[in-house]
Amino acid sequence: MLDEKVEPIFDVIARRNAGEVEFHQAVREVLESLGPVLAKHPELADFKIVERICEPERQIIFRVPWQDDRGEVHINRGFRVEFNSALGPYKGGLRFHPSVNLGIVKFLGFEQIFKNALTGMPIGGGKGGSDFDPKGRSDSEVMRFCQSFMTELYRHLGEYTDVPAGDTGVGMRELGYLFGQYKRITNRYESGTLTGKGIDWGGALVRTEATGYGTVFFVEEMLKARGESLDGRDCIVSGSGNVAIYAIEKVHQLGGRVVACSDSDGVVHDPKGIDVDLLKQVKEVERRRVSDYAQRRGDATFLPGGNLWDLPCDVALPCATQNELNGRDAAALIRGGCTAVAEGANMPCTPDAVRAFREAGVAFGPGKAANAGGVATSALEMQQNASRDRWTFEHTEARLGEIMANIHELCFATAEEYGAPGDYVRGANIAGFLRVASAIKALGLV
């Protein structure tokens, strides 16, 4: 329930951003935590800090014309929402997917503000993308689209202004084309303007693995706080893209076993544990489906259109997309013995699912905390670009582990301070908000 201090604020935001359902959901989820904060710090209400955080500093929408291999012209729409720069340059990924619209980008950018604040790194929040679908397109078509997209977006970017990375549909291939066009137009090799780059052209070791690894590091910290660990635990992971693959890899390294993953076609159940090397070959090299993994893996079963969350497990990691896990799924996980859930994607659990987990005493790590490893390592990549340096895999992974442990400690301590021990949702929301609010107040009315 919304506190009486913030309910009128939410009503205004909902009216001013009509029809943007995902954005409303993200804002409400944060505002539900802020009643005790405004009671303790009434001066924040006087400066209208909440209202200022919920209003993007800049929203950019543009046309992206491009030509396919048959010579047919297509028109897509591009977006960049530069949401908040109180802590540093706007930082957040680009998503290429047919579902992308302004409301989706605003929800992602809003989440990014608090996620980035929790890392302790000097980065603000933003997000962008297009309704372009790279699936099934040739490399030449993807290149032409990316070049057209960057031809418009480049003027808004820079290592001290706005630094995009990849997200759904934007991997190493797309980032290469985007950075190449940025370099061509500006005639400058500004490595720090994009993150998630290839190792040979300014990228950082561990960035590819960072979001998945970081999510698992956060789960391990939650379990550690309960005197437990991942060792010997059965886990399920939704998705089979970058985040899911490396979450699976890290679970196995820490002694757990991931027995199922998924894509939009269905679920693969592998009781002996997902073969990460085979999954990488199928998904990253061949760009095929998990059904192809199941065909090559003798003990695995493919369940077309199956519901991953009906499978029993100890730990669940939703790593695919927003609102993929609902209240009915949460109930099934609880019945199946699940004791810990961490969001590897942005807002993959619906509000009723989150409520069910919290009421059942399931350790629940919200995305703005649990999947902050990707953007944290992006900031480490920016550090290396600025100093013309390259760190070892071991050093960077150790830094990532420290950052995720610090995020867990901050969320845990903040939840206790505000009367909600063990509630990582409230801890993450309040801790992130306070860091951004402090900077906004210090910078004056800008």
Keywords, please?
alpha/beta; 18 helices; Rossmann fold; 446 residues; 5-stranded mixed sheet
In words, what does this structure look like?
With 446 residues, the chain is of the alpha/beta class. Among the domains are: 58-189, Leucine Dehydrogenase, chain A, domain 1 (Rossmann fold), CATH 3.40.50; 210-370, Rossmann fold, CATH 3.40.50. The chain is built from 18 helices and twelve strands. It has helices at 7-16, 21-31, 35-40, 43-46, 49-54, 102-119, 139-153, 172-186, 210-225, 242-253, 276-285, 290-296, 327-335, 351-360, 367-370, 373-386, 393-417, 424-443, and strands at 58-67, 73-84, 90-96, 125-130, 162-166, 234-237, 257-263, 266-269, 301-304, 315-317, 340-342, 363-365. Strands 9-8-7-6-10-11-12 form a seven-stranded mixed sheet, with helices on both faces. Helix 1 runs antiparallel to helix 2, helix 16 packs across helix 17 and helix 17 (393-417) packs across helix 18 (424-443).
Tell me the layout of helices and strands:
Blueprint: H1 7-16, H2 21-31, H3 35-40, H4 43-46, H5 49-54, E1 58-67, E2 73-84, E3 90-96, H6 102-119, E4 125-130, H7 139-153, E5 162-166, H8 172-186, H9 210-225, E6 234-237, H10 242-253, E7 257-263, E8 266-269, H11 276-285, H12 290-296, E9 301-304, E10 315-317, H13 327-335, E11 340-342, H14 351-360, E12 363-365, H15 367-370, H16 373-386, H17 393-417, H18 424-443
Parallel strand pairs: 3-4, 3-5, 6-7, 6-10, 10-11, 11-12
Antiparallel strand pairs: 1-2, 2-4, 7-8, 8-9
Helix pairs in contact: 1-2, 2-6, 6-18, 7-8, 9-10, 9-16, 9-17, 10-11, 11-12, 13-14, 16-17, 17-18
